[in-house]
Structure to design on (161 residues):
């Protein structure tokens, strides 16, 4: 009994070590990012980057929609956020009235989309597994009290199940 135990314990240790190494090297961590350029006719272009990004599928009445939300960390002194909602829950290009956007700039000004025919959100990868990769790009026009902005950028996030 002792001889077989002496042989099994080192073998179990090697198996556990191999599994731990395999788990660490095969996992590809997703670095969430939502970056875009906000361009206005009066103020020019400003680059914006939100490090906290969430993508989730939600039901609105009987409609499936996908929410792409970007914001700063709670511990950050920076303010602002963006919420992009598309009517659908798969890869593809969503345009005009299928896109709803709310953007809050660093001064607290609120901008909303108006279903402009040039609004476009393209989701290129959409893994619906928890933490799965979701990527895409957007080109949107939003309007608020200060005027209109054109937002053009991209996002990478893990899917929130």
């Amino acid at each position: 009994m002792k001889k077989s135990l002496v042989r099994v314990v080192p073998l179990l240790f090697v198996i556990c070590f191999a599994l731990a190494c395999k788990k660490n090297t095969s996992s590809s961590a997703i670095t969430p990012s939502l970056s875009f350029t906000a361009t206005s006719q009066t103020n020019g272009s400003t680059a914006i980057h939100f490090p906290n990004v969430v993508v989730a599928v939600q039901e609105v009445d009987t409609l499936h929609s996908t929410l792409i939300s970007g914001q700063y960390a709670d511990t950050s002194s920076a303010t602002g956020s963006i919420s992009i909602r598309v009517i659908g829950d798969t890869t593809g290009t969503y345009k005009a009235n299928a896109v709803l956007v709310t953007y809050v700039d660093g001064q607290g000004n609120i901008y909303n989309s108006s279903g402009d025919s040039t609004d476009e959100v393209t989701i290129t990868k959409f893994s619906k597994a928890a933490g799965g990769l979701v990527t895409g790009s957007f080109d949107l026009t939003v309007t608020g009290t200060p005027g209109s902005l054109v937002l053009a950028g991209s996002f990478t996030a893990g899917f929130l199940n």
